[in-house]
Amino acid sequence: MFRQSAPCLFAIGAMLTLVGCRTHDFPDYPSNYREYAYVTNGGSNTVTVIDVVNVRQDRVIPVGSNPTGLAVNSKRNEVYVVNTGSNSVSVIDAEKKAVVSTIPVRQRPYFISVNAEGTRAYVANSASNNVSVIDLNKRREIAAIGVGEAPGMAVISPDGNSLVVSNRLGGSVSIVDAKLQKVRSVWSGCPGATDIAILPDSSKAFVACSGGHQVMALALARPQLAVSNPRPIQQDAFLTLLDVGKSPVSLTLKPDGGEIFAVNYDAGSISEIDTTTNEVGGAYLVGTHPVSGSISADNSTLYVSNFDADSLGVFSIDESELVGTARTGDGPDAMAFSKAGHLLFVVDARSGDVAVIRTLTHTLLTMLPAGSKPNDIVVKAFNVRARATL
């Protein structure tokens, strides 16, 4: 077990030097606590499992062909892997550390979203223009909902009522009634529709239009508010198109829902969006070809992976400025925080490894091996239940 007094590693140039950690840098975990990061390796047909407690690789799990998207179940100890090449979803039991089921879906799936209750998963199938609805209790597809052309993402709202789908080639957004499993509305005018952010109260959705320089803002219908709200929103509504930087490829929502940061790949910048007023605030240069963002739980710091700068930009949200950079491997992309937030794991797509960043100092702690062409990462934490003894 990784204890508070254990030594830690951080990188200085190409050298790894052993140094002492201050006692508050790492949590003191109970003996039954487990926490793992899962990394899909598209070129290896595997998932690398990283032991977050001990900061080391735990094992490598074979899955389907060309694994891409990942999601965790908040209600059970399961992790879901989208296999783009084999048109399926692998179910990993986090306690057994093994694949326990494989669920067929449709053609060329990429991403997966799980509802808050942990009972349904939604997979956008880019080559069949539909979304698979998976019953996670029965571990099978129960419906396929037709949407637009080449859907890339299908994200379920926190209240479980609206499924927002970005149709990349169609340049449109489909909103599905998740209860009825039917398309409720379609909105065009979003070229290269990609990433989706939905507010914590499920009132609005924002979609990155990566083929241009805008973000689409939509109001989501919430007729279920009729008891408590005399004027519930009965229909979805178009709100506005927000001008950001060129090629917004991802949207990062603050945990409190107050702001979204659009990551603009070709502009090398981020754009700040006020989710209450639907207005763009400042725009800030962060690095070369930024692709992804992640915000600390206290809403104070945004980390941006600069794919062609082999670094993270560290942006202070309170001060509205770039306050530092952190070195990574080659081609940093997807990121995930440890549950305690003391570590940030960054997938390096080109060098096939994971950079572990200490968030206290914004420095590189160590590099861990992954597989070929790693692309996504999630973290799952849980307590192992005591086994009955005779």
List the defining traits of the structure above:
390 residues; mainly beta; 0% helix
Distance N terminus to C terminus? 28 Å
Runs in which pLDDT lies below 50 for 5 or more consecutive residues are 1-23
Mean pLDDT reading: 92
Question: Biggest sheet: strands, sense, closure?
Answer: 4 strands, antiparallel
What is the overall shape? globular
What is the percentage of strand-forming residues? over 45%
Tally of alpha and pi helices: 0
Sheet with the most strands: spatial strand order: 5-4-3-34
Proportion of helical residues: under 10%
* Global structural class: mainly beta
Query: Radius of gyration from the CA trace?
Result: 20 Å
Q: What's the count of strands?
A: 34
What does this structure look like?
There is one protein chain. This protein has 390 residues and is mainly β. The chain has strands at 8-12, 15-19, 33-41, 46-51, 56-62, 67-72, 78-83, 88-93, 98-104, 109-114, 120-125, 130-135, 140-146, 151-156, 162-167, 172-177, 182-188, 193-198, 204-209, 214-219, 237-243, 248-253, 259-264, 269-274, 279-285, 290-295, 301-306, 311-316, 321-327, 332-337, 343-348, 353-358, 363-369, 374-383. It has a four-stranded antiparallel β-sheet with strand order 5-4-3-34, with no helix packed on it. Strand 19 and strand 20 (214-219) form a beta hairpin. The chain starts with 7 loop residues before the first strand and ends in a 7-residue tail after the last strand. The model is unreliable at 1-23 (pLDDT under 50).
